[in-house]
Amino acid sequence: MSQRVTIDIQDHIAVVTMARHDKMNALDREQIEAIIEAGREVSQAKGVRAVVLTGGERAFCAGLDMAAMASIAQDAQAGFQDRTHGRSNIYQATSMVWAECPVPVIAAIRGYTFGGGFQIALGADMRIASPDASFSIMEMKWGIIPDMGGMHLARRLLRGDVLRRLTYTAEVFGAEAALGWGVVTEVVDDPLARAMDLAGIIAGRSPDAIRAAKALIDETERASAEDVLKAESRVQQDLIGGANQMEAVLAGMQKRAPAFKD
Asked: pTM, whole model, 2 decimals?
């Protein structure tokens, strides 16, 4: 297990911590692979009845590491549509590994939860946030769309108009707005402690019934997930590396207004 992500299992609860704290858990290829590996490990670990997923004090996950954009653009040229992780590609698996975990996953969120980090949080069964947590579907800022499972996962929670607004604008919103829109389950001063309390309650229930309940709820929500995930990949492959997408990245890094071509 990479030190990018740590796992601590006690009393049937697996605490998974994204630990790239110097980069606010930003996502490069190594971080993505470590998150997926951790999700697989706790999904298969004997005796685990609940998972708490967290990122530390400053950030749950600040989204894509911009230094990794070039390598991701190369992946786009090779094709995002290959299903390398079940029904997902590797990027989608970063969030879908939590949605597909057989036991409940509770995200304990502090600080920045942007872009890919927001999509990872959507993969959890519940999201407990601190009052100072901030969120964004930030991909539009870089001229791309959410393609890490976000289009499938967000529609389980958000009304269509709210999802459109947040996707089109890339605006940053706080914990109370997230609570009102149904993105966040609770807002508390100590989200990790509250997540551990909930995980403890779940761990005290019948593990067979908990697993069955999660699978059943997922079945009711998962209509045509494969088609949605493939559509994400198709649209992203068309966007990434294009002139306007590269202009969005350059303008963001240079802190200037972008000059897009129609």
From this structure: 0.87
